[in-house]
Every structure is written in structure tokens, then in C-alpha cells.
């Protein structure tokens, strides 16, 4: 081991960590400004799980996306840092665009900001502040978007402008795939997913948010890799996106039968609001998504 090379590598790694922390702080400041009608920090300090979930998803999504920007071949430490800063600014814009898409399309009959600070009456008569189901779906959308951006930014090949254009294009296509999948998920679900989420049913939020993350993992695998030309990359994305959506919908049915032999997902969500059961189901579906992603 060359100690000098190792120490130099650690020094560069420390710089990347500082840049990453800067962007986590930046998105916090932007989100604080965006929701200036209420103080997120006060809500988090007060135990508002909905606000905590959406913030956690935002931070994780940024980190996942930035990790893609840190990969690839080096052009020299200084240029790598400049590229990371540029990519970080692009990622920040995309993450908040994703939030708007989630708010206005994925949950079109729900105002995320209002729901996350709204007061709800629990079945036992107690009151709780914040729609945790909405917070969970928003967190899932952020994380899924992070995986999509990770794949679109991590590839090598092409010039600088092709890289930027590729990131923009695959962000748009990835968001479209998430929205189509969300629509199909609602079609195969024997209850109104949005109504359950609006009614602060956390189990329903875990179901939708978790399966969006699973698709994001698969889409990341379909996008990542060297730039080989627009036709090849777009065709590959389309094939893998369709394959991933079909496999996840099948996986949901299989997991329902295998892991919940004495009941079913619909009963656990709508009637029992069983958070534990949905955590198990979503974890299994994400496990399948990881296997699918590495098998492609």
C-alpha cells in the first residue's frame, strides 16, 4: 500500500463529503423557504412524523443521486469537484421538480404541505399532527428519484452537454415511468389508494411509497452505464422500464400470497391499517427489485 496515495485519496474523499453535506444543507434551506408558512424544524422537534419522513426522503434522495455523480472516470480532482458542484445544482432542481410532480399528479387530490401539518383524530380519540401516509409517499418519491438521477448522471461517455441532456431526458422519462406505475398500482389495488392516504392510513402510504422506491432501483439499473447513443439508450430504458413494471406488479401478487398466507394486502391496509405487515411486504418487494436490478 502506498501511504501517500492513500492519504491523498482520503483527502479527496473528505472534500466530496463536504460537498455532499453542503447540498444536504442547501436542500434543507430551499425546503425551509418553500414551506415558510410553517416551521419544519418546530414540527420535527414536536414529533411530527410526516414532516420527518418527507425530510428524510429528501436527504436520502440527494445522497443517492450525488453518489452517482461521484462515480465514473476522473478528469482530475479540480475538474471532478467542479463537475460535482454542477451536478449537485442540477440534482437539487430535479428533486424539487419531483416533489411538485408528486404533489400535483401522483397525489392530485391532496395538498402535501397542508396534509403534513394537519391535525387528525385517531380511532382511539387522540389527536396527532401530520399525515404520515402523505409523508411516506413523498419520501418514497424522493428516494426513487434519487435512484433515477444516480443512473442518469453516473454513466461515462459523451461530452458535457450530452451528459446534461441525458440527465434531463432520463429524469423526465423516469418520472413518467413512476407516474404510470402509480396509476397501474391503483388499478390493481381493490381500494382507493389516494383516499386511504388522505385519511392518514400509514399502511397505504408505505405500500405506495415503498413500491415506488423499488421501481426507482430498477430504473437506476436500466439508465446507468456508458452513453452509447440516444437510440440505444432510449430503447434500453424503455425495455427495462416495461420489464421492471411488469415484474414488480407480479411480485406484489406473489408476495401477497407467500408472505401473508392467512390474509391479504388489501385487508391489512384498508381494514387493519397494519403497518407491520406492509413493512414486511414492501421490504420483500424491494428485495426482489434489487435482485432484478443486478440481474439486468
- Classify the secondary structure makeup into a structural class: mainly alpha
How would you name the oligomeric state of the polypeptide chains in this document? single chain
Percent of residues in β-strands = under 5%
The percentage helix is over 70%
Rounded average pLDDT: 86
- Which strands sit side by side, in order, in the main sheet? 1-2
- What separation lies between the terminal Cα atoms? 35 Å
**What is the approximate shape?**
globular
Radius of gyration: 20 Å
Order of helices and strands: HHHHHEEHHHHHHH
Largest sheet: 2 strands, antiparallel
Unreliable runs? none
Tally of separate helices:
12
Please tell me the total number of domains: 1
Number of strands: 2
Could you please describe the fold and organization of this structure?
There is one protein chain. The chain has 296 residues and is mainly alpha-helical. The protein has helices spanning 3-34, 40-45, 49-69, 77-106, 112-116, 132-154, 160-188, 193-198, 202-223, 230-259, 265-271, 275-295; strands at residues 119-121, 127-129. The chain has one domain. The protein has a two-stranded antiparallel ribbon with strand order 1-2. A hairpin with a 5-residue loop joins β1 (119-121) and β2 (127-129). α3 runs antiparallel to α4 (77-106).
Short description:
The chain has 296 residues and is mainly alpha-helical. The chain is built from twelve helices and two strands, in the order αααααββααααααα. The protein has a two-stranded antiparallel ribbon.
